[in-house]
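input
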Amino acid sequence: MEILPFDFLTHLPSVLPELALTALSVLILFLDLRLPESQRRLIPYVAGLGMFAIAVIPLTTAPTGDLMWGGTVRHDILAQVFKVIVILGGALTCLIAADTRELGRKGEFYLIIIVSTLGGTLLSASADLIMIFVALETISIPLYILAGMRRNDLRSVESGVKYFLFGSFASAIMLYGFSLLFGFTGQTNIYQIAQYLNSEVFYNNPVPVLVSIVLIVVGFGFKISAVPFHFWTPDVYEGAPTPVTAFVSVASKAASFALVMRFFMAVFPETVVINGLVIENFWAALMSAAAVLSMTLGNLVALQQKNIKRLLAYSSIAQAGYTLIAVAALQAGTNSPDVVEHVRQQAVAAITYYMFMYTFTNLLAFAVVIIFSEATGREDIRDFAGLSRRNPWMALTMTIAFLSLAGIPPAAGFIGKFFLFNAAVQAGLVTLAIIGVLNSIVALYYYLIVIKVIYVDHSPDEDQQIAISPTYAGVLTVTTIVVVVLGVLPNVIFGWLLSGAAMM
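output
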């Protein structure tokens, strides 16, 4: 793929969302410094509504599929969609944090969220090893800070330290893998590396290339909370402020999956064959193994959880496993070229749809958890007993979120899982799809347990109503509508995602 010659006006649309986020971060910094304490509640609304407006920008520019800015970013539909997902995740996070006691008036929190969102948008379009690493650190370092933001809470401090240490090691290992690829090829652009890997120099040397893949998978596995690189997830989810947990669970995961798809399809396509070994089959096998381990361990350990945030942490690990099924399906089996291309497009669209659906579903669940914990100071599952009598609307939205995560119609999670498993079947990975279905059945149990607690169990406090602010009511309404609409009318966006997959 050729790198488009530099022309400022031609390249500008590809980074307009990033420029807008930079401007918004400066505005939030200014407001944080200048507004008196009585007016600081405006900051989360400026940040949240500002990001909602910025999320429209990628939809207003026509994607060309070209490599721009010296080949560091690619301006295609896939990048546009994931930029929208990440920005909406940041916007909703700002709004669900607006009425919290510890974060509602802290301007630095919203500034850091915007910076991390900026890293996520860059990551979604990155096409160069250097840009990938810079974007990954731009999204990650602010999250390390946010995880330990409650300095007087030992759990928060511990989660921040663990997140930082695990993240630093994972980044270092991944960077070593990148350096090997650069050393082998002399290239940093991911679309040009494959050309050099096909040269005679590597014909008898597959092992160094396989080593680099393993090292890179370690870094990616950390970002998406895949087993066995998931150890940080439960502690960070439980210890970090809940709005931070919500953002970590969706924005970082979505941007990372965008990168995983783009990276492996560009650097190690089916045309890269070294000493008779199809490199694509190797990384697809790693993805399959990670999918099985993540689904199984995440769901089995979630069955034992008593804290709602830890349950959602292991649920997130399992959800990463489901998504990795479609990542493995990107290899598309040994069909004819036309069929292979069709299967790959289906897999890319399925992953993108699932991340779009998962962002709204998980933020809906976390919004209810935030409202409940702000009102009661509790986060254990048993404390949600009688929620249907304390606030029927919260109970209904939590039920919709959990049914979506479980894959029960008409919520969007059902269609999302169908697309993922269908992509695996079309790629010939029937066994992997069956394991995914069986894991979904296991997961249904612990999701239904929470719903049972909400509607059936009784609590001595259930006569005390839980009030919802207009901001929270708006967030719950919007996310619920999106989850239901995506489940009932998936073609609202799936056709667009298929056209984006065709550009890869």
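quick obs: The mean pLDDT is 88.
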